[in-house]
TrEMBL record:
Pfam families recorded: DCD
A molecular function GO annotation: dCTP deaminase activity
InterPro entries with a match to the protein in the record: dCTP_deaminase, dUTPase-like_sf, dUTPase_trimeric
Lineage of the species this protein comes from: Bacteria, Pseudomonadati, Planctomycetota, Planctomycetia, Planctomycetales
Organism listed in the record: Thalassoglobus neptunius
Enzyme class, UniProt record, top EC level: hydrolase
Keywords: Hydrolase, Nucleotide metabolism
Any one GO biological process: nucleobase-containing small molecule interconversion
Name recorded for this polypeptide: Deoxycytidine triphosphate deaminase
Domain of life of the organism encoding this protein: Bacteria
CDD domains for the chain: trimeric_dUTPase
Gene: dcd
EC number: 3.5.4.13
Length: 194
C-alpha cells in the first residue's frame, strides 16, 4: 500500500521513516513550495556528481565483481555549486545522490516500510531520467539514495545542488524481513566512491 502525504508525515513523527534533513514545509501556503505531493515527498540533489571519464574507452564486464570493482576506476567526481551548475549533455549518464539521508528501519514489533524513487514529471518532460532501472529502496536501508541521471532530451540540462530532483514513494512491507543489505548500504558518495 502506498502512503499518503499525511501518512508519510505520521511515519516521520513516529520514527518508522527518517529523512534528514526533513523536507519542509509540511503544508502548502508558506511561500515555499511544499515537497509533499499527495502520495510522495520530493528529495533534492546532493552536492557531488560522479561521471565516467570521457577519455576512457573501457568495456565493462557485468559478470565480474561488484559495482565499484567493475567501474570505480572509470569515475571522476565534481562538486556542484550554486553559481556554477554541472551541465548534463544529451546522452550522458552521471551518478548523484540525494541531499537527504533516508532510513527505513526494520522494526520487529511493527510494519516496516520500503520505498521507490521516481523522477519528477516536469524533469522527465525535459528528457531527464532519474533512478531508471532499480527504484526500490528496501526495508532496512539507511543512507543517501544513489541516483542514476541520464539526459535523453535534445538540450543540455543544468544541475544545481539542492534542486528537487526525485520523489520518494513510501510503501508498507507485509511481514518482518530478515537483514540482507546490498553493496550500496550506507554509501555516502555517488557511485560508491570513498
Amino acid at each position: 500500500m502506498i502512503l499518503s502525504n499525511v501518512a508519510i508525515q505520521q511515519c516521520l513523527d513516529e520514527g518508522s521513516l527518517v529523512i534528514e534533513p526533513e523536507p519542509s514545509p509540511r503544508r502548502p501556503g508558506s511561500g515555499q513550495a511544499c515537497p509533499y505531493q499527495t502520495s510522495s515527498v520530493d528529495l533534492q540533489l546532493g552536492e557531488e556528481i560522479a561521471f565516467f571519464r570521457d577519455e576512457q574507452q573501457a568495456v565493462i564486464d557485468l559478470r565480474n565483481g561488484d559495482f565499484l570493482s567493475r567501474v570505480g576506476f572509470q569515475f571522476e567526481t565534481t562538486l556542484l555549486k550554486d553559481d556554477e551548475p554541472f551541465i548534463l549533455k544529451p546522452g550522458r549518464l552521471v551518478l548523484g545522490r540525494t541531499f537527504e539521508r533516508v532510513e527505513l528501519p526494520i522494526r520487529e514489533e511493527k510494519t516496516c516500510l520500503a520505498a521507490r524513487v521516481e523522477g519528477r514529471s516536469s524533469h522527465a518532460r525535459c528528457g531527464l531520467l532519474v533512478h531508471f532501472t532499480a527504484p526500490t529502496i528496501h526495508a532496512g536501508f539507511a543512507g543517501s539514495i544513489a541516483l542514476e541521471l541520464i539526459n535523453l532530451g535534445p538540450y543540455s540540462l543544468a544541475l544545481y545542488p539542492k534542486t528537487p530532483i526525485c520523489q520518494l514513494i513510501v510503501e508498507t512491507v507485509e511481514g518482518v524481513p530478515f537483514r540482507n543489505d546490498s553493496q550500496f548500504q550506507a554509501q555516502t558518495r555517488p557511485g560508491g566512491l570513498s
